[in-house]
Design brief:
By secondary structure, this protein is mainly β. It has helices at residues 2-31, 367-393, and strands at 41-43, 48-52, 57-64, 69-76, 83-88, 91-93, 95-98, 104-111, 120-129, 134-144, 151-154, 159-162, 167-176, 182-189, 194-200, 203-205, 207-210, 215-224, 231-241, 244-254, 260-263, 270-274, 279-287, 293-301, 307-311, 314-318, 323-331, 339-349, 352-364. It has a 5-stranded antiparallel beta sheet with strand order 1-3-8-5-6, with no helix packed on it. It has a 5-stranded mixed beta sheet with strand order 2-10-9-4-7, with no helix packed on it. The chain is elongated, with a radius of gyration of 50 Å. The N and C termini lie far apart (170 Å). The model has no long low-confidence stretch (mean pLDDT 86).
């Protein structure tokens, strides 16, 4: 009985202790404010703009609300004579649905009429929600005369000179003279044996985006694909963007370049010579280039003990297409043994690469020395035979 009374007493005490806490929690819950839904808002990234006199303007609008609803759209204080319409989904609309979480998009299209350049027009876009909320967006458009679309191409050095192997690099400035942005395509009219490329910031390009009034500096590179004769070659650079175009005349002046070759009259690069004796060989120096080869010199490199002379050794000039015959006097060393040796002939000139050929010389000993050798061998054999005969009988 005593235990039961004790348990009841504990329950009553616990209830008395928890009652104030429950009351406090109820009061705290009643004190928390109910969250207010996000207000209806209509906005655009660029509420103030400068437009052209006859330009159709499209403003991208966003509508935001804290709860789902249909929002009616209208314009207050619209300029007289202007055609204004709200566009969405490719159609003309008068309202937009907002789901309470995401922004709804709608465009306001304006077609100004009867305006003067330099005037400013203000009006208000009004969004009215089905919950009774209203949002207003002031818009301001300043009308100006827009520069007509135009392109220009200029170069400080439209004429460059170089050899046939030169890569001609022209610095060209491309400018959008109008106020509208455009993408400009680049092409070039050049001789078929020229390769022309366009470079912007070290990257090859075929088109360039240009904002209104913007300029960009390009590099036009022209390179001949083969050895071409000296002449002035025209290159026309074309720029095309929207309905406008521009052209620039460039010129690559290819100057003449000498080109030396060294060979023999019959093309053979070998011959025979006797040790210790001088033998003549003919060489031919040709200028296959498109400009005179000046201060042409010939030299040789031969095995040790050999003597080589060239006549002529120096040539003042060789005109394009001209050939000069040179005599090479080659004397192998006295003690050269039979075999093949190489003599190198080299030709050089001003502003031209040197050319060399290896001439193989087959050396043979003199016939007289061969006869003397045979005679000596015969005498030696005879002496041996006599000695054998005499001493063999004893």
């Amino acid at each position: 009985m005593r235990k039961l009374q004790l348990s009841l007493a504990l329950l009553v005490l616990t209830a008395l202790l928890l009652m104030p806490l429950a009351a406090y929690a109820q009061e705290a819950a009643q004190a928390e404010p109910t969250p207010t839904p996000q207000p209806l808002t209509i906005f655009t990234s660029y509420p103030s703009q400068v437009v052209g006199m006859d330009e159709t303007v499209t403003l991208a609008l966003k509508v935001r609300a804290g709860e789902p609803q249909v929002v009616q759209l209208s314009v207050e204080d619209a300029p007289t004579g202007w055609n204004l319409s709200f566009r969405g989904g490719g159609r003309t609309v008068s309202s937009v649905f907002v789901d309470g979480k995401n922004d709804a998009s709608v465009d306001l299209r304006l077609e100004p009429a009867g305006v003067e350049p330099g005037t400013t027009h203000s009006f208000t876009v009004v969004a009215t929600g089905s919950t009774g909320q209203v949002s207003r967006l002031p818009i301001q458009l300043t009308v100006q005369e827009k520069a007509p679309p135009a392109l220009s191409l200029t170069s400080e050095l439209p004429v460059l000179r170089g050899k046939a192997t030169t890569t001609f690099r022209f610095n060209v400035t491309l400018k959008n003279e109008g106020t509208d942005d455009m993408n400009v395509n680049l092409t070039a009219d050049a001789p078929p044996f020229f390769l022309v490329t366009f470079t912007l910031n070290a990257q090859d390009v075929t088109s360039v985006p240009l904002n209104g009034g913007e300029s960009k500096r390009l590099t036009v590179e022209a390179r001949a694909l083969n050895n071409i004769p000296a002449a002035a070659y025209p290159i026309v650079v074309n720029a095309q963007g929207n309905d406008v175009s521009a052209s620039l005349n460039l010129t690559a002046e290819v100057v003449g370049q000498p080109e030396l070759s060294l060979t023999t009259p019959d093309g053979r690069l070998s011959g025979e010579a006797n040790a210790g004796r001088t033998t003549s060989f003919k060489l031919v120096v040709s200028n296959t280039g498109s400009a005179p080869a000046r201060n042409v010199t010939l030299s040789s490199s031969a095995p040790s003990g050999w003597n080589v002379t060239l006549d002529p050794k120096e040539i003042a000039a060789i005109e394009p297409g001209q050939k000069v015959e040179v005599t090479a006097q080659v004397q192998p060393a006295e003690k050269a043994i039979n075999g093949d040796y190489v003599v190198t002939f080299t030709v050089r000139g001003d502003e031209v690469s040197s050319k060399s050929i290896d001439f193989r010389v087959t050396v043979t000993t003199s016939t007289l020395w061969g006869i003397a050798g045979v005679a000596l061998i015969a005498v030696a054999v005879g002496v041996v035979a006599l000695a054998v005969g005499r001493f063999g009988r004893r």
